[in-house]
Design goal:
The protein contains 13 helices and 10 strands. The protein has 333 residues and is α/β, with parallel strands linked by helices. The chain folds into 2 domains: 16-124 and 267-327, D-Maltodextrin-Binding Protein, domain 2 (3-Layer(aba) Sandwich), CATH 3.40.190.10; 127-266, Periplasmic binding protein-like II (D-Maltodextrin-Binding Protein, domain 2), CATH 3.40.190. Strands 1, 2, 3, 4, 5, 6, 7, 8, 9 and 10 form a 10-stranded mixed β-sheet that branches.
Length: 333
């Protein structure tokens, strides 16, 4: 004899089934609409930075959370390259700095020949401009880099964009006033250890794994240069919204006990504007539904909030992301 379920259970099930369309996302319906497996490429950054572990964790979470969606994180040179990959249709999702995204959608700088049709899902966390050198090099501020061997970051990276702009703000020409190297953050750390360079730029979250390695190396006395004094010049040149001041707190890295004021820029997660609204909605929802998992992968994942996600993007938000934020009651028309 079949067991009769309590009437209250039937009511609860009915409420859930009715509520799913209202909430805006049913994984089974999403899978039905999109048929076969959807493969997504996430453009991240160097293995020594934050983008790669964050993007790798995001790829795994997307693949586990969305039926028939398979996401993969790709190692890249970061922001500039990432947006070019979006432009070329070789990446579906990309991490980028706000200033690089601003250039991309406006068709400036590296994107002068063709603007990028990128749309934002969320502002994720801020990046700190960390300029590393060693005690005894007589380098205490950015202007002291004149005549020094300096890595300005990987070609095609947001770090390189920031380095060039900061050097200019300090009155230096990147091509004539320093001996320039274009190294990844991992290679920059090794080169500084080996005495092949005297300083390097890195714009990223804190703590950065490669800088932890540098500051933990026995026999070295690394330090970070303050650069927040150059913020007014950057804001005058590029507007007040892209750059802001943050502090790398003392103790963030071993041996660095003092706070260091730096120029900061937002990190954003963007997609091609041609991505379907359903998929963009689902991706945005996954970011927040699985935020604790992202925070466990890297501390910067804990910085994501509904309020900050919708603030500070120089590109329009994707309609799918807007739908999610409206459902959560935070979207500002």
């Amino acid at each position: 004899m079949a067991t009769r379920l309590p009437a209250v259970l039937f009511v609860a099930v009915a409420v859930i089934l009715v509520a799913l369309p209202v909430l805006g996302f049913d994984p089974r319906e999403f899978a039905r609409r999109h048929g076969g497996t959807t493969r997504l490429s996430i453009a991240t950054g160097n293995t020594g930075g934050v983008y790669y572990p964050y993007g790798g964790g995001l790829a795994r979470i997307i693949s586990q959370s969305l039926p028939r969606v398979d996401a993969t994180a790709e190692v890249t040179a970061a922001s500039v390259d990432n947006l070019k990959l979006i432009q070329q249709g070789k990446a579906d999702i990309a991490f980028t700095f706000g200033d690089t995204l601003d250039d991309a959608v406006r068709g400036r700088g590296a994107f002068a020949k063709s603007p990028v049709r990128a749309r934002t899902l969320a502002t994720l966390y801020p990046s700190y401009t960390q300029i590393a050198t060693l005690e005894g090099k007589h380098i205490d501020r950015v202007a002291d880099l004149r005549g020094k061997v300096v890595s300005t970051g990987s070609p095609g990276s947001g770090t390189e964009v920031m380095a060039v702009r900061l050097l200019k703000a300090a009155g230096l020409d990147v091509n004539t006033d320093i001996r320039r190297q274009g190294l990844s953050v991992n290679a920059s750390v090794d080169a500084l250890k080996d005495g092949k360079i005297e300083a390097f730029f890195w714009t990223g979250g804190v703590p950065t794994a490669s800088l932890l390695d540098l500051t933990s190396t026995m026999g070295l006395r690394p330090k970070l240069l303050p650069n927040d004094d150059l913020l007014p010049a950057l804001q005058a040149a590029y507007g007040p919204a892209l750059y802001f001041r943050l502090v790398v707190p003392g103790g963030t890295y071993p041996g660095l006990t003092s706070d260091v004021g730096v120029v900061a820029v937002a990190n954003l997660l963007v997609v091609d504007e041609r991505m379907s609204e359903d998929l963009a909605y689902a991706l945005t929802r996954v970011l927040f539904d699985k935020q604790r998992d992202l925070a466990a992968i890297h501390p910067e994942g804990a910085r994501l909030t509904l309020e900050t996600a919708i603030d500070g993007s120089p590109a329009p938000y994707h309609p799918g992301a807007i739908r999610y934020y409206r459902e959560r009651g935070v979207w500002k028309p």
